[in-house]
Amino acid sequence: MDIIKSVIDIVKDVGPTVRKYVKYQFCHNDYVDQFVAVQKKLERQLKDVEAKLITELNQPGKKTTSQADNWQEEARKEIAIKVEDLTCRGGCFTYICSSRKLNKKTQALNEVICMQGENYTNNGWSLVIDDHSIEYRTTVFKEKQEQLKLRQKDIEAKLEAQRVQPGKIARKEVEDWMEKVGQQIAIKVEDLISQGECSPSPNLEKITEVLKQTFEQGEKYTNVDASLVVDNQSIEYCAPVFKEKQERLKHQKEHIEANLKTQCMPPRKIARKDVKEWLEKAGQQISIKVEDLINQEDCSPSITLRKNTEELKQMLDEGKEFTNAGVSLVIDDHSIRGVPLLVEECSGRDYVQKQILDCLKGDKVRRIAIWGMGGVGKTTIMKHVHNQLLKEQKFVKVIWVKVSKDFDIIVQQKREFDIPKFQRRIASSLELKLEPGDHENETKLAGLISQKLGQGNFVLILDDVWQQFCLEDAGIPNLDGNNGCKLVLTTRSQDVARAMECEVISVNPLPPEKASALFLEKVGSAVLSNGRIKGDIEPFFTKILQKCDGVPLAIVTVAKTMSRKLDPNLWKQAARKLSKFEGIVDRLKFSYECLESQCQECFLYCALYPEDYEISREELIECWIEEGFIYEEGETRDTMYCEGHVILEKLVDNCLLESVKNRERKDCVSMHDLFREMALDIRPQFLVKAGINLEKLPEEDEWSENLLKVSLMRNYITKIPSSMSSPKCPMLTTLLLSNNKISTIPEAFFEHLLGLKTLDLSNNYTLKVPSLSNLVGLKKLDLSKTSIAKLPQGLNMLTNLKYLGLGGRLSETCDELLQNLSKLQHLTIATEIKFKWRNIGNWGKLQNLEKLVFYGLHNLTAMFGGREAVAKLASLPAGTFSSVQCIGVCYCGDIKKLFSVRWLGYLQNLQTIDVRDCGHIEELIGFESEGGEKVTVFGERGAIAKSASLPAGTFSSIQRIRVSNVGDIKKLFSGRWLGYLQNLQTIDVRCCGNIEELIGSESEEGEKGTVFGERGAVAEWLGYLQNLQTIDVHCCGNIEELIVPKYEGGEKVMVFLEREAVDKSASLPAGTFSSIQGISVSDCGDIKKLFSGRWLGYLQNLQTIDVHCCGNIEELIGSESEEGEKGKVFGERGAVAESASLPAGTFSSIQRVRVSNYGHIEKLILI
């Protein structure tokens, strides 16, 4: 038992050891594998850490952390350990110990070294720190210093280049930077290291950072656009510069004044306004003293000097324009003194004219009244006096104001003179520039008028005064002093003449011998024999003359009526009719009764306008057409328009109307107040209260049942009362309410006016229109210049409309409206209406449309040129726009092109192009070529020769081209297009300040030639204009000559040229100019002559030459002798006597030569 017990004890003691041995024996190989795996893991970590360090150490100023260095060292040692070094060969116990050691080593590597390695390989763990070593910081410091030196040199070079400009110095911040750089570059690294008060490394880092900041601050000075200098504002610099500029301005001013004095030597020339303003301002600048600027207390002296020096510099720059050669510093003085009035000869009144002129030239009489009965010739006499005063230039201003009855107003049942209206008329004559509201301020306006008139002596002529008034209330200065100012008025009332304290000069009827002479002068040669009335007519002539009572208006009117009447029976009948009339007005009816019924109706219609109103010829004829006075079945509107002109000329020839021009120089007619009185007496069914300052509609009892026409135009009517019932006027055909201030019209107002054919509501800017569905008989409806926002109800039911004017700001398209207005002939669109072209086919319904006018469309840039419109051309019905004969565009400020040339195929019958007041237009017609190249026709650049792309017959129907107030256009069209304009009859160009050529050409080589332009006409094109009848050029200041040269083999051929014509007229096609009947030129300041006398053979049908306000013209027609010696025809020295050199028949067709406000012409004809 003891043995067993002993064995058991031994087993107990040896058992654990045996078990451990057995365990390690079995696990030893695994421990070896684990150790090797951990070593490989550590080896990978070491490589990653080394790679990461390489990347992080690339950053400047970085070094490895001590922990990272220690880890790498330890990792390398652990990787170098071999397994054999950790295992021992021997007994059991030794083997067990080796396994345990290997296991613990593996655990230690894994838990400590590898764990740290994982941290070091992590992206968020940095293995480097800033290198604060002196060696590194020293190197960095020196590098920064070197970079700063290089930047300093660059900026110094740029600064020197900019300081070359006069008056420039370095900016203070640049100077401060340069100074700071100099200090920092001078620092030595040894001085920083040797400083004992602090560690060298931090000190180096701090200074290095300062160098870096200074370098970056200098970067903005290296930019290309950076300015391193400023103006030198020191008094020491600014004062001499100011004096130098003053001296230069003084010399420039003296030079301009000398040129101005020379240019003002011709009569009726004054300095341009901008020249006067510049000279005045220059004088003020020259008078400034430097000391006064320096001693100013309220501002820095240097700032004041700099500011005034800059003003001097600006003045010098502005003055350069006035010193350029060829620049005109003067303008014609007619805008100040007045413009000559058109007037017929005044036979038998020489004594009265002399009496008036003597009073005006003397000092005793200040106020003169020309008194006489109506028609006796007071106005005609004063027009001649007016024009004579302009020629003599004794007075600074000669002002003509037409007064008439429309200046009479009713105030508290008493007739008084309308002072505000009179003031507005004078302000317009004086061309006063008024601020908004000045028209309504009677006191202020009186002051402005008085100030303007007080600038020099004047003559104020008031024609046809019917009511006395206070001159001072109107702003007329005192006429009783020694200022040389005079007042002349014409009146039929002696009471008015006395009340205004005037010296009365009577104008009596002509005595028999002068009355007879006037009658013979006007009756024409057909009824004369040796200057006397033919014998078989003479007895009746004497009776007729007696019935005229010596009144010139009656004499002239009757004489014109009897001209070309050779049958004595007609004279006998005229004498018998005149014997039945009593009074001058009744006797004027004789001329009316001799008219055809059509002319009578047209004449009576003129009475619907205000007294002495200047009626536009074009507007009047349009009204006659719409009234049905001119109508023939199947005739076009253009044909009727021509017939209207014939009727107008008959009325003018018979002296029933007077031909005049308005302020815009447009052709108008006016009606003598006696004829107007006669017309209203003939037609009592006319209710006319036009232009008499009405503020409300006539009372209901004035709207009688037999009324035919009512004219209330040009008043101040604001509304039609809702309480007013519809006038019961079943015969009323015409209602004219234009140019009022009407805002509303009651719905029921038109209820009983079912016979209306003409309704004019235009120029009522706040008008709202009621339903028009009852007025199905309307033929003319004018709503232009109104504020309607949508089309009036029932407008589409007015299927008889022939004339439609639309205005306002319509928010809807009118495409749908058009489909019902198939009879429409004239369409005026004066509205911001939208053209969507969605239903472009509706335009095809307007098969009778002949005239299309666009007025005041400021958002219109291309009417028929937009891509949307062009794209839909294919959808247009055949014949659309084929009836259109006239297209007009007025006051369309944004339009640049009228229509695309692709539209020309639809406008085959277009006869008239009329463009007015379109300041930005550059082309009338334009198109895009196949290659996308821009081609312009009637445009700024003329036209090119690719005419093959145009439709056949293009332009062949065009007869008239009118362009007025078109600021940007420089030429009308190229001479190459004249072949397409063979039927062109009229060229009318007015107030186009930039136009240089009417017709221009471009040669195949691209050389520019011009026709009717600044340099004249190329003769080869002129033969195409064989139907051209009229050339009108007005207010085109850049045109110097009408037609000029062609070059043939280097030799210059001149037509209508400054240097006259040469003998090569054979180069012109036969018939050139043969159709021209009139040439009219006005307000063309640079033109010097019209044409050479050698061209008169081509102007065989020329009847009138009219030249007005051309201040520099020297010759109308000039000639050149065979020896080259210059002679003048209708020129500065008159005409040469060698008339044999002129073509046969020269002057034979000329009926009238009229020259007014001429410049340098001294004589018309020299014998």
SSE map:
Blueprint: H1 2-57, E1 62-64, H2 66-80, H3 92-121, E2 128-130, H4 134-162, E3 168-170, H5 172-185, H6 189-193, H7 200-217, E4 229-231, H8 235-263, E5 269-271, H9 273-286, H10 290-294, H11 301-323, E6 330-332, H12 334-337, H13 350-361, E7 367-371, H14 378-392, E8 397-402, E9 408-411, E10 414-417, H15 419-429, H16 442-453, E11 458-463, H17 471-474, E12 486-491, H18 494-499, E13 503-506, H19 512-523, E14 528-529, E15 532-533, H20 538-547, H21 552-562, H22 568-580, H23 584-593, H24 597-605, E16 615-616, H25 617-627, H26 637-653, E17 658-661, E18 667-670, H27 673-682, E19 686-688, E20 709-711, E21 734-736, E22 758-760, E23 780-782, E24 803-808, H28 815-818, E25 826-831, E26 851-855, E27 862-864, H29 867-871, E28 886-890, E29 897-900, E30 912-916, E31 923-928, E32 934-939, E33 960-964, E34 971-974, E35 986-990, E36 997-1002, E37 1008-1013, H30 1019-1022, E38 1030-1034, E39 1046-1048, E40 1051-1053, E41 1078-1082, E42 1089-1092, E43 1104-1108, E44 1115-1120, E45 1126-1129, E46 1152-1156
Parallel strand pairs: 7-12, 7-13, 8-11, 11-12, 19-20, 20-21, 21-22, 22-23, 23-24, 24-25, 25-26, 26-28, 27-29, 28-30, 29-31, 30-33, 33-35, 34-36, 35-38, 38-41, 41-43, 42-44, 43-46
Antiparallel strand pairs: 1-2, 3-4, 5-6, 9-10, 14-15, 16-18, 17-18, 31-32, 36-37, 39-40, 44-45
Which descriptors apply to this entry?
disordered C terminus; single chain; 30 helices; 1167 residues; 17% strand; five-stranded parallel beta sheet
